Structure formats: C-alpha cells, structure tokens
C-alpha cells in the first residue's frame, strides 16, 4: 500500500515549500514531490517557495508519480514524470474552485491522453472559498490514457471512492501512440 499524503507545507532550512509525501503502509516516507509553481490565485506565492522535486514510487508493477495542485497546468512537469515511467500520475489535492471543476477534468483527460498514463485528481476540500469568494466543492476524478473518465465524483460529495486501473489500457495507448521516450 502507498498513501499520497496530499500536500503539506514544510519548512526546511528557512524555506517554506509544499510537498506531497508518499508513504508506505507502515507510515514510512518513501518519496515525495514538491510544488513547483505555488498558486497565485490562492495567495500561496507570497509565503511558499517554488520546489524542484517530482517523485515517483513503485507499487507492484505500477509506477506512481505525484504532481501537486496547479502544477498540473504545466504540461512539461507532467511530461517529466511520464518520461520517468509513471503509469499513474496523482494530483492530490487540487484546490479547484467549483466554476473550474469541469475545466480541471478536461485538463486531466488531456494530461492522461498526451502522456499515455492514468491521471487521478483528488480535487480535495469542500465547503470553503477562494480568497476571491469562489466556492471549492471537491469533485475528484480519474482519467484513462485513452481519453475517458473512469471515475467522476460529484461536486460536494464526500467519501471513499474506487475505480479499476487496467494495465491493458496503458499498453493499448502506448502501442497506438508510440508511448513516451523514457529517460
């Protein structure tokens, strides 16, 4: 079991960064990603420094990478994780306003398709507002490497949700589009 710890603010050597810890079932840290581009919309850039690290972990025959929140908007960051062999790219959490939830699902579909990976976004948090007053209502999803949502959670829904990831979907996508050149 691997748990993606969402995003946590940490202070290392006087520098505040946002990290996504990836821990094993016993709670041991096995890797982590840092947020490369802190959010301007939430005011995060005023207090959080840009990170540099994108982490990948292995679970069975799956390689799982983590990209934090708005970093998913930058295709070169997601591509970098895919080029290191990620089969699933997680985006936990993404604080996305309700008026942008459909756009975020579309973005996830594109990132999954263009990189021949699965893309899962927690779109975490419900019941609060952005500094400009827009509601945040959650609404996570999982996008397949072939351009379909395998899971789409309604805005405002809370709970534990599951979906099945199919290795064949990855192989099909990579065979059809040639896959990603690994580095």
What would your notes on this structure say?
A hairpin with a 5-residue loop joins strand 9 and strand 10. 19% of the residues lie in helices and 30% in strands. The strands form three sheets. Strands 5-6-7-8-11-12 form a six-stranded mixed β-sheet. Strands 1, 2, 3 and 4 form a four-stranded antiparallel β-sheet that branches. The protein has a two-stranded antiparallel ribbon with strand order 9-10. The chain contains three helices and twelve strands, in the order E-E-E-E-E-E-H-E-H-E-E-E-E-E-H.
Mind sketching the topology for me?
Elements: E1 2-4, E2 8-12, E3 15-24, E4 29-34, E5 56-59, E6 62-66, H1 75-83, E7 88-91, H2 101-115, E8 118-121, E9 126-129, E10 135-137, E11 141-143, E12 149-152, H3 167-177
Parallel strand pairs: 6-7, 7-8
Antiparallel strand pairs: 1-3, 2-3, 3-4, 5-6, 8-11, 9-10, 11-12
How would you briefly describe this protein structure?
This protein is an alpha+beta fold. 19% of the residues lie in helices and 30% in strands. It has a six-stranded mixed sheet with strand order 5-6-7-8-11-12. Strands 1, 2, 3 and 4 form a four-stranded antiparallel sheet that branches. It has a two-stranded antiparallel sheet with strand order 9-10.
Portion in strands: 25-35%
Distance between the termini: 26 Å
- Broad shape: globular
Q: If you compute it from the alpha carbons, what radius of gyration comes out, rounded to the nearest whole angstrom? A: 16 Å
What is the structural class?
alpha+beta
N to C succession of SSEs: EEEEEEHEHEEEEEH
Largest sheet descriptor: 6 strands, mixed
Number of strands: 12
Unreliable sequence segments = none
Physical arrangement of strands within the biggest beta sheet: 5-6-7-8-11-12
Helix content, binned percent? 10-25%
